[in-house]
Write a structure and sequence with these properties.
Elements (H helix, E strand, L loop, with lengths): L1 H14 L5 H13 L6 H23 L6 H24 L3 H26 L5 H19 L2 H21 L11 H16 L5 H18 L3 H19 L7 H6 L2 H20 L3 H22 L4 H21 L4 H37 L1
Length: about 375
């Protein structure tokens, strides 16, 4: 998809005389020479690794009692060492797909090995501790081998750890364990930046969003929802304006941080709507929600498609919601639409003027 757009843009620039045809061909050739971000072979290799790891563990478990203990432990250790040494061998030969598959087998087998050895020797412990250790080993493996596949595995294990906690403690806050999800998310993001597993970053961001939503369920106060809305918009605006937007670390992180900050703000506004359903506070909340959607489009709508569509959905949903709750007052509804239309028109005029000025400045720099 991106290659098609790039090819069309290069052709357009050649027609306008901005590039020579030779330069356009060189640029397109350089893009084609890069490793593909998506490889069906790599995906199938990882899926095969997951199936093989599951098959080995189920095979061992099904005949567990018939195998002497020493042989069981030796087989587990041999399996883990074999796959890691094999991964190192394939990495040295440049076979990254095979290496990724073996690393995934090793990471998954380690968790199963912990559980099986614990059962065999009746070792004390709990599932939560096993998940922490499993995640830690996967994170270390991803860092040592600089593996994007194991980074994604660690991201899924962080979700598994959070799910085990919620199941064990019946979604209650107990001790310091609830702080583990955001810490795991930070570790996953660090691994993403180190290993280049860009898509795995969404696992960390979604984990933080899920964790925050769970925090609200612990104490469904309006102050918590308000904090989500205010802090989310504050972070979004900070990421959308210079100098932070132009900083190297934000630019390298891509569009995800701004989107998820806006998503948290949208969740906060939704939670506020669940607690405020009438009176002047509802009207104020509706205006603020519409303003937040317009601000999101104004600051990130051009370059961040995810923010743009979320803002569209939020704006349209708010309009229909306000129309439904104020249907008894046609005059009130029409006044709200009139004011909203005028506000959006003013913001649109300002944005258009700014875009024209930015375009003119860019043209002067090019000349």
């Amino acid at each position: 998809m991106y290659r098609g757009r790039l090819e069309r843009d290069l052709s357009l620039w050649v027609e306008k005389g901005l590039l020579t045809e030779t330069t356009a061909e060189l640029l397109l050739g350089e893009y084609d020479s890069r490793p593909a971000s998506f490889s069906l072979g790599n995906v199938l290799m990882v899926l095969a690794a997951i199936l093989l790891a599951a098959a080995v563990l189920l095979l061992v478990a099904s005949n567990w009692e018939a195998i002497p203990r020493l042989i069981r432990v030796g087989a587990i250790l041999a399996l883990i060492w074999t796959v890691y040494l094999g991964a190192a061998y394939f990495l040295a030969r440049g076979a990254s797909a095979a290496a990724s598959g073996l690393l995934v087998i090793g990471a998954l087998s380690f968790g199963g090995a912990i559980s099986l050895i614990g059962q065999m020797y009746h070792l004390s412990g709990d599932e939560q501790t096993v998940m922490y250790l499993w995640f830690a080993v996967a994170a270390v493996t991803a860092a040592l081998f600089r593996s994007s596949a194991v980074t994604a595995t660690a991201g899924f294990l962080s979700w598994g750890s959070f799910a085990v906690y919620l199941s064990t403690f019946d979604t209650r806050w107990v001790g310091v364990d609830p702080w583990a999800p955001p810490i795991m998310a930070l570790i996953t993001i660090a691994l993403v930046r180190f290993t280049g597993a860009d898509r795995a970053r969404h696992l960390a961001y979604l984990l933080v969003v899920g964790w925050l939503t769970w925090l609200y369920t612990l104490d469904e106060r309006i102050a918590v929802a308000l904090a989500f809305a205010i802090c989310g918009m504050a972070v979004f605006l900070a990421l959308s304006v210079p100098p932070l937007r132009n900083s190297r670390i934000v630019r390298s992180a891509g569009a995800a941080p701004a989107f998820y900050a806006f998503l948290i703000a949208a969740i906060g506004l939704l939670l506020l709507h669940m607690q405020v359903d009438d009176g002047w506070r509802l009207v104020l909340l509706g205006v603020l929600t519409l303003a937040a959607a317009v601000l999101a489009i104004a600051f990130q709508g051009r370059d961040n498609g995810a923010v743009r569509y979320l803002a569209y959905a939020m704006f349209a949903g708010e309009i229909f919601y306000l129309a439904s709750v104020t249907v008894g007052s046609i005059l009130g509804t029409s006044s709200l639409f009139l004011l909203s239309g005028l506000l959006v028109a003013v913001v649109a005029w300002v944005v258009i003027r700014l875009e024209r000025r930015f375009a003119a400045n860019s043209a002067e720099v090019v000349q």
